[in-house]
Amino acid sequence: MNYLIYQSVIFLVLSFISFKGFAQDESKNPLVCVNDKENVVSSAMEGKWFSKQEGYTLIFKKDTTVLEQIPSKYYPFLEDKTIYSAGYITIKSETKVYAEDTPYFLTVLSGNPHIVWFRERNGDPLGDAESFNVFIAIGETTADDLLYMGGDFNNQPFLRFTRVKK
Fold first, then answer.
1. Same structural domain for residues 100 and 120?
2. Residue 89's domain spans which residues?
3. Residue 34 domain-assigned?
4. From CA 55, how far away is CA 74, in angstroms rounded?
């Protein structure tokens, strides 16, 4: 009888260790996207936007699976931040493509909605992170929505974008 109890205890301990090992493997990427429908930028940003001021086009496609691609070197920056949206961004002018279907995420930096996107550096497609502040003013219809794209800091002017399509 004692032998059966001993076997059961050993089985439970080994099972616990196995499950804990699986949990550790799954936690290698701690990045999670919080779906908050009250977050104006996150809930309205998806789609195509155009700025008449500079001739820039922005396209946001939500896809939270891109968080699996974010290199771990950016985790310390994100450890105290919430990610409200993630996906792919395209940024282009009439003559140049700055990013095409490149991973991005939306967080808050110093109280401002902030987009972080990636570009290639030294052969690494996610080797360099760029960012900008962003605001959205909701219009009476989605066609009336306005997106404002600023710089990295609050001392730079904002470009105004109108929605092309959602």
1. yes
2. 40-165
3. no
4. 31
